[in-house]
Amino acid sequence: MKKWRKAVVAFLLLSMLVIPLGACGSKDEETTKVRVAEVTRSLFYTPQYVAIEKGFFKDEGLSIDLKTTAGGDKTMTALLTDGADIALVGSETSIYVQSQGSKDPVINFAQLTQTDGTFLVSREKIDNFNWEMLKDSTFLGQRKGGMPQMAGEYVLKKHNIDPKTDLTLIQNIDFANIATAFASGTGDFVQLFEPTASVFEEEGKGHIVASFGTESGHLPYTVYMAKTSYLKEDQETVAKFTRALQKAQDWVQENEAAQIAKVIQPYFEDTNVKTMETVINRYKEQGSFATDPILDEEEWNNLQNIMDEAGELPSRISHDELVNTDFAEKAAN
């Protein structure tokens, strides 16, 4: 009987030691799942993939469920219908949502890119390009009302080209099918993201002649945003997410394109590493990758100026109303 009692006591003591240890282990390994919807898969978003592959999100206790929802409208729909917690898309979409009287406004909280990310690709090789060459041509642009198209039109007007009268502008093709349409013979010029633009050049389907990013200036081109309710209810998650992003932005600035390309290659299996290096280096040189997540007021105003110029701005909205820099400023510091 004494032996039985001793065995029970020993078991209980052992249980008291094991249970807390087990509980501590599960707590350390506990992660918060964050569903992110990206507007497209592009090397333009290099810091995002770096944050995932280098484990910066994981270090913050976050598990990222990344899905590509082609097009700003689809990405915003995913966010508004609770199909995603955070959306990576152009800031103009938050303005469109607000103009419709949203009860749960979509707030921009962390900036990923700070210039337009598209390039002008010509069907024929042009040694000495000038923007006047677009006159009387057929230009395959982006979706009407989207930031790529608005930035494109802004640049054309900057070079005294009226997109409505000086050329034939095609913008009724779905975002995901624009590159295919050009490859099939539609248009003399096309506005493309990377790596598609460089791949077309390698395959002889087109030739990069200009950058819309260097022409349109700084603006909050691609930003992480979430509904007001999510920012309030999951403040710690958003803070961790933004810190991880800042770490990735620092890492991208500090490392060479070749090293960066190797890290994010799993996201671009159909693109060779050399092409990735070229694209990443091109984006770095023109300052497309934001160096911190802060979306400042000057960039916000430039965005609205471009929207207004394109006739797509419903009404001006102050920086304070749709931008929250608290998380970004803390991460940057």
Q: CATH top level of the largest domain?
A: Alpha Beta
Low-confidence runs of at least 5 consecutive residues: 1-28
Tell the overall outline: globular
Task: Outline the biggest β-sheet.
Answer: 5 strands, mixed
Helix content: 40-55%
Give, in order, the helices and strands: HEHHEHEHEEEHEHEHEHEHHHHHHH
Structurally, the number of domains stands at 2
Number of alpha- plus pi-helical segments:
16
CATH topology of the largest domain: D-Maltodextrin-Binding Protein, domain 2
- Indicate the radius of gyration in whole angstroms: 24 Å
Strand content: 15-25%
Derived structural class: alpha/beta
Looking at CATH, the homologous superfamily of the largest domain is: Periplasmic binding protein-like II
What strand line-up does the widest sheet have? 2-1-3-10-4
Distance between the termini: 65 Å
Mean pLDDT: 90
The CATH architecture designation of the largest domain is 3-Layer(aba) Sandwich
Record field, number of beta strands: 10
What does this 3D model show about the protein?
The protein has 333 residues and is an alpha/beta fold. It has 2 domains: 31-115 and 219-332, D-Maltodextrin-Binding Protein, domain 2 (3-Layer(aba) Sandwich), CATH 3.40.190.10; 118-216, Periplasmic binding protein-like II (D-Maltodextrin-Binding Protein, domain 2, 3-Layer(aba) Sandwich). It has helices at 2-29, 46-53, 56-59, 72-80, 92-99, 147-158, 178-183, 196-203, 212-216, 228-233, 235-254, 257-264, 273-285, 297-309, 319-322, 326-332, and strands at residues 32-38, 62-68, 86-89, 106-113, 118-122, 138-140, 168-170, 189-193, 207-211, 222-227. The strands form 2 sheets. It has a 5-stranded mixed β-sheet, with helices on both faces. Strands 7-6-8-5-9 form a 5-stranded mixed β-sheet, with helices on both faces. Helix 6 links the parallel strand 6 and strand 7. Helix 2 (46-53) crosses helix 11 (235-254) and helix 11 packs across helix 16. The chain is globular and about 55 Å long.
